[in-house]
Every structure is written in C-alpha cells, then in structure tokens.
C-alpha cells in the first residue's frame, strides 16, 4: 500500500512538473566543514530511495502559548534535492540536458540563490562548478554535431551587477565602477547587448579557466575587508551559442546565463549606513524583483505584466527569462543550526518561486 501511495505521489508530482512549464527549483545543502558538524541543524531527507525531492528542517525550540518548548518540523518539496554528499559532478548530471538545450537555440537561465556561505560560488563559479562543466559539455556536444553539418561560435561574457550598475569582469580592473555599461535590447530580434564589454570567443573549452581567473582577480581587487564584494553583487556568466548548418542552411542562436546571486541574508537596516545601506537596499530589491518575475512567468497567466524593468538583473535577462526560455533556480542552504532562520527564509522564497501554478495544476489533475 505504501508503495502505491509513493507511486501516486510521484505521478502527481510529475504532472505538476509538466504543467509548470519551464521553471524548476532544485535545493542543495552543503556539507558541514571542519568542526562545524557539532553545530549542525537536524535535516531529514524523507524519500531517499531513488530521486529525492523532499527536505525537512527540524526547527529550533519554539515557545508555545503555554510557555512549553516545542520543536517544529519544516517540510519542503522541490523538483530535486541534493544532500550534503552530492558532488558538483552529480549536480551537473541533473542539469546537463538543460544546458545543452542552449545549442538547440533555447535561452536558459540558471541561478544560485542563498545566503553568503551556503555554497553558491562552489556550485556555480568555482573551477569545479557548473560554469566550467557547462562549457566543456557544450563544446563536446558541439563537436559531435559537426558530422550533422553544424558549426558553432561560442562567445563568453562575464559581468557583475553591483548597486544596480553593470561592471565588466573581463575588462580592465581600473574600469570597475568607473566605466558605464548600458543594456541594449533589440525587441525585433529579441537580442540583448551590453555596451563596451569584452567578449571572449571560446576556441577551446580550457579558455573558461582564464575567464574565471580574470573575473576572480577583478573582483578581489575591488574587495576590501569590510566589503566582501562577491557576496554583495550578482555575477552573470553569459555564453552565446551561434550555430550554422552547412548542409541544411539552418541557423540557431541560444544563450546560457549562469548567475551567482548576491547573498540573500537580510541585513538589519539599522546596522547599515551609507554605501552599505545602498548595497543592502539594491540587493534586497533585485532579489525580490527576480522572485516576482519568475513567479509572474510561472503563473502562466496570458498577458500578465512581467516586471522586468524593476531591476537591472531582470532587465538584463529579460529575453532569457520570458517566452520559450528555460529557468532553473538552485536554492542553496547551509547545514548549520545558527543559520536555520536564514535557511527557512531561503526555502520559503524558493517555494514561492516554485509553486506558482500548483493551484491550477491540482484542478487539472482532478479532471
Ligand atoms: P557562497 O558563494 O554562497 O557565499 P561558497 O560557495 O563560497 O558560498 O561556500 C562557502 C564555503 O563552503 C567555501 O569554503 C566552499 O568551498 C565550501 N563549500 C560549499 N559547498 C560545498 C560542497 N558542496 N562541498 C564542499 N565544500 C563546499
Ligand atoms: Mg560566493
């Protein structure tokens, strides 16, 4: 009987997936590092047989109305859940189809959302992360498509959105925060360009290492002890794939956007002043706006207003989020008890992003 219930539950889950269209949310919990293990939160993975989609945080003691200590369980469900043992290699396997669809001309956005220290950069922009893995995979698949007549041009950009300004992470370090870059949309072609930024044409996949190193150098120069720059800005790796087929004459153009978001932790406004306050406000606003945009897209309402223009990040990604685009958000969580409250906030944000069409989905399932 239990087995049947499990099968029904999965079937329903899959139907919900189809109805949700092109938006997915994956959750990843990083492992404890060093001596952190003694202060870890209690985290459960209820259905660990096969594909895991559920995660439960066992909450800190809550004072009930009677003053008794109660412990709450906070269950969440996502399209996939990666526990602390999952390696980047395994995580990439689950996104490689999505990544490859950029070769077929799709626009794809993959985001890492979570508080500082939750594993966003490890997952996305480290030398072992999704960015280099995606480049290698795409290059390999492009090679194999040669026998079908396809040749691809691979163009890379790497920018940062900081305080609602765009900086070129592949440009000169001295230009950071000084050189102005504008977003230009071509509505007819549905194409976006950023003025004055460097484009790297990737002739081989190893070049991605230079790109990552250059970007990291640029950012570390701009960082100060009081201002951990990379946590306070969004980084966007943009890979444009322009394909032409010498046999059929077909053309395709797809863009893969890999986004390492600013830390989602809520800084108390009272603590922040001056530049720090400005940073905090622009991060809060842009993350909220991203959530609103994805939620509006996922609501499936025809003709719904999508508030792209409310932040630089969503404005930049406008043509890669709407229409026929595909979107995946990783919600990253820390395994630490001390971070429980931030983790729950992140998971709730991601649930909001994820569940937008569940209401409609349930109706269809009944019919
Ligand atoms: P964020 O970018 O969200 O601030 P990081 O990616 O820098 O977080 O991760 C914080 C620390 O945890 C780093 O030292 C990183 O190497 C480590 N870390 C994160 N995720 C993992 C993981 N899955 N396995 C091992 N170490 C990890
Ligand atoms: Mg980071």
From TrEMBL:
<feature type="domain" description="Kinesin motor">
    <location>
        <begin position="22"/>
        <end position="356"/>
    </location>
</feature>
<feature type="binding site">
    <location>
        <begin position="114"/>
        <end position="121"/>
    </location>
    <ligand>
        <name>ATP</name>
    </ligand>
</feature>
<comment type="similarity">
    <text>Belongs to the TRAFAC class myosin-kinesin ATPase superfamily. Kinesin family. KIN-14 subfamily.</text>
</comment>
<protein>
    <recommendedName>
        <fullName>Kinesin-like protein</fullName>
    </recommendedName>
</protein>
């Amino acid at each position: 009987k239990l087995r049947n219930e499990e099968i029904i539950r999965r079937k329903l889950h899959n139907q919900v997936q189809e109805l949700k269209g092109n938006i997915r949310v994956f959750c990843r919990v990083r492992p404890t590092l060093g001596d952190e293990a003694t202060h870890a939160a209690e985290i459960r993975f209820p259905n660990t047989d096969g594909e895991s989609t559920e995660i439960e945080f066992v909450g800190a003691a809550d004072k009930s109305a009677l003053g008794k200590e109660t412990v709450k369980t906070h269950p969440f469900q996502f399209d996939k859940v990666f526990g602390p043992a999952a390696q980047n290699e395994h995580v990439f396997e689950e996104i490689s189809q999505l990544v490859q669809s950029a070769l077929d001309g799709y626009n794809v956005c993959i985001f890492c959302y979570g508080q500082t220290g939750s594993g966003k950069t490890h997952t996305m922009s480290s030398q072992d992360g999704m960015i280099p893995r995606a480049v290698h995979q795409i290059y390999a698949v492009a090679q194999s498509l040669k026998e079908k007549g396809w040749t691809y041009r691979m163009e890379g950009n790497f920018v940062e959105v900081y305080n609602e300004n765009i900086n070129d992470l592949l440009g000169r370090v001295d230009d950071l925060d000084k050189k102005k870059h504008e977003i230009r949309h071509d509505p007819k072609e549905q194409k976006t360009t950023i003025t004055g930024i460097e484009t790297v044409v990737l002739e081989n996949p190893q070049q991605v290492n230079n790109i990552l190193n250059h970007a990291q150098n640029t950012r570390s120069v701009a960082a100060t002890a009081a201002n951990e720059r990379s946590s306070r800005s969004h980084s966007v790796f943009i890979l444009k794939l322009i394909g032409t087929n010498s046999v059929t004459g077909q053309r395709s153009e797809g863009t893969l956007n890999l986004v390492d978001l600013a830390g989602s932790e809520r800084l108390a406004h009272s603590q922040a002043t001056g530049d720090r306050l400005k940073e905090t406000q622009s991060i809060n606003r842009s993350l909220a706006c991203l959530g609103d945009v994805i939620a509006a897209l996922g609501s499936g309402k025809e003709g719904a207003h999508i508030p792209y223009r409310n932040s630089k990040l969503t404005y930049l990604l406008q043509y890669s989020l709407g229409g026929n685009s595909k979107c995946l958000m990783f919600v990253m969580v820390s395994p630490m008890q001390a971070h429980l409250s931030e983790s729950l906030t992140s998971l709730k944000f991601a649930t909001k992003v994820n569940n937008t069409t569940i209401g409609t989905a349930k109706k269809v399932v009944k019919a």
